[in-house]
Amino acid sequence: VQLQASGGGLVQAGESLRLSCAASGRTSHRTAMGWFRQAPGKEREFVAAIRLSGNYARSVEGRFTISRDNAKNTVHLQMNSLKPEDTAVYYCAAGNSVILSSMNEGTAYDYWGQGTLVTVSS
Fold first, then answer.
1. Which of 63, 71, 93, 100 is the most buried (most CB within 10 A)?
2. Would you give the DSSP letter of residue 81?
3. 3-state secondary structure of 73
4. CA-to-CA distance for 56 and 100, rounded, in angstroms?
């Protein structure tokens, strides 16, 4: 499975961005797709994930929406009301054996994209 993330950029606080992750290879509607991020000097953290429905980190709940287009093997992350603390490299991930209780754990995912940088200025 190969993952290609896109959509990052520089925005001002309060603005929106939409990230996309295109998957190729052995994925299905049962494949869990997730977004993680890593800010400079910080550890990677969970942002959102989806199999049938979305799961979110508390820090983004209500502002971010994850969705998937199974026909196009693509997952999107709509990010609204962006804050400077959302600045990070965002990585998409995929896993064919991710259980619900582990969807927020990076170690549960088998495949990772290259990352896309999101910078939010104040």
1. 93
2. S
3. coil
4. 12
- DSSP 8-state code for residue 26: S
Question: In 3-state terms, the chain is what percent helix, strand and coil (to 5)?
Answer: 5, 50, 40
* Parts of the chain with a pLDDT under 70: none
Closest CA to 83 of 60, 51, 56: 60
Instruction: Encode pLDDT of 54-85 as tens digits.
Output: 999 999 999 999 999 989 999 999 999 999 99
Cα–Cα distance, 7 to 13 (Å, whole number): 17
| Assigned token pair, 64 | 């971010």
Q: Is 18 helix (H, G, I), strand (E, B) or coil?
A: strand
Closest CA to 122 of 4, 36, 11: 11
Q: Which two tokens stand for residue 101?
A: 């209780």
What is the three-state SS of 88-108?
EEEEEEEECCCCHHHCCCHHH
